[in-house]
Design brief:
There is one protein chain. This protein is α+β, with helices and mostly antiparallel strands. 43% of the residues lie in helices and 19% in strands. The radius of gyration is 18 Å and the shape is globular.
Length: 182
């Protein structure tokens, strides 16, 4: 068993059971401090608007919960082959997802190949697409683990199938650069 902590979620990795369990992190004290800071400056209204963003009072309180729930709904609506399946969500308080072998690619190799396969659209959510820890391999096919952000949904919908079909797990950017020079 392993435990990983992200910005808004804690993940229990249970390879023997073939699952991962994601829990939201609620940053209560940061949210309270943030609330009073912006209230003094008169900017409070924008921090209670929809949708929930990663910053602001609502982001600190509900960001992880929203990411869990969005991940579950997006998988069940699309069943995109690029997504690691999220089997169950208890309203975002707990997500159960299939375990996959961690991606061992270098960040530059992953990014450059995803950039090529999506015609640069990975910049729509560069935070999630640039980090190899957000991906795994399942039957030698790349799968995305962290897709709770709405910014990544458009890229996944448009290019997910293409990525699964064409992604090369032994891709090396340095070798590709040499080929381009020749």
């Amino acid at each position: 068993m392993q435990i990983r902590k992200g910005k808004d979620r804690i993940v229990l990795i249970l390879p023997l059971l073939g699952t991962t369990i994601k829990f939201p992190i609620i940053h209560f004290f940061i949210a309270v401090r943030y609330f009073f800071y912006w209230k003094k400056r008169g900017y409070l209204k924008e921090y209670f608007s929809w949708p929930i963003e990663t910053s602001g009072v609502r982001g600190f309180l509900f960001g992880g919960l929203s990411a869990n729930w969005n991940e579950f709904l997006f998988y069940w609506k699309t069943r995109n082959p690029f997504l690691q399946p999220t089997y169950f969500s208890f309203f975002g308080l707990l997500n159960i997802q299939r375990y996959g072998e961690p991606c061992q690619l270098q960040a530059v190799d992953l990014w450059c190949q995803l950039y090529e396969l999506t015609s640069g659209k990975v910049f729509d959510d560069s935070h999630h697409f640039a980090n190899p820890r957000n991906f795994c391999f399942c039957n030698r096919k790349l799968r995305m683990l962290d897709y709770g952000s709405g910014r990544s949904h458009g890229v996944i919908t448009q290019y997910g199938t293409k990525i699964v079909e064409l992604f090369n797990p032994v891709y090396c950017w340095e070798e590709e650069k040499k080929k381009l020079k020749e």
